[in-house]
Design brief:
The longest helix has 17 residues. The protein is α/β, with parallel strands linked by helices. The chain is globular and about 45 Å long. It has a 5-stranded parallel beta sheet with strand order 3-2-1-4-5, sandwiched between helices. It contains 6 helices and 5 strands. Bound molecules: adenosine-5'-diphosphate. The site of adenosine-5'-diphosphate has 16 residues, from α1 and β4. The site of adenosine-5'-diphosphate (ADP) has 16 residues, from α1 and β4.
Length: about 160
């Protein structure tokens, strides 16, 4: 079984994430979308909201499940018998950052491979942090988030 963890904050999930997940689906038997919860970090949307949005978007996809976790991604992978970590590369800055983490993870656990997909060029400028920034200033993010959740993201009622 090829099980991959796609870790991130997904605060909120956007169409760049969705594209990555859809492209990765044929490569794996199961994709666990892991929402990492770091108690030191401040989020815009509560973790349960972020989780339910992702579950709704992929409700018809049997290969996908969404699980929240604390601690090291590598430990989360071991716990769920995942042998791959999936990450997206948008820029060379992403690459430098991801390279060190992937190599450290490799040193910690040889059996878990990090697999990178290059971002879709038409979506590579999208990041959750810019989406959050636009929301904080009451801008329109409809074109950057999946249609299913657009109204609720824009309503912003669920913000922490
Ligand atoms: P983090 O909290 O680690 O920044 P995110 O929730 O922003 O994570 O993203 C999770 C994963 O999705 C990361 O591997 C990131 O590179 C990837 N990703 C984010 N935005 C895009 C995009 N526009 N295109 C492709 N991959 C992306």
């Amino acid at each position: 079984m090829r099980v991959a963890v796609f870790p991130g904050s997904f605060d909120p999930i956007h169409i760049g994430h969705v594209d990555m997940i859809q492209r990765a689906l044929p490569l794996f038997d199961q994709i666990i979308i892991g929402i990492g919860v770091n108690s030191q970090k401040k989020y815009l949307f509560p973790v349960e909201t972020r989780k339910s949005w992702i579950e709704e978007i992929f409700s018809n996809e049997k290969k996908i499940c969404v699980i929240t976790y604390q601690g090291l991604t590598i430990d989360f992978c071991k716990q769920h018998h995942a042998n791959f970590i999936l990450r997206g590369l948008r820029t060379s800055a992403d690459f430098e950052f991801e390279r060190a983490i992937a190599q450290m993870n490799q040193a910690l656990h040889r059996d878990i491979e990090t697999v990178f997909l290059i971002a879709n060029p038409s979506l590579s400028m999208i990041s959750s942090s810019i989406v959050r920034d636009i929301l904080l200033h009451r801008g329109d993010v409809a074109q950057f988030v999946p249609e299913e959740i657009e109204d609720r993201v824009m309503l912003n009622e669920d913000r922490e």
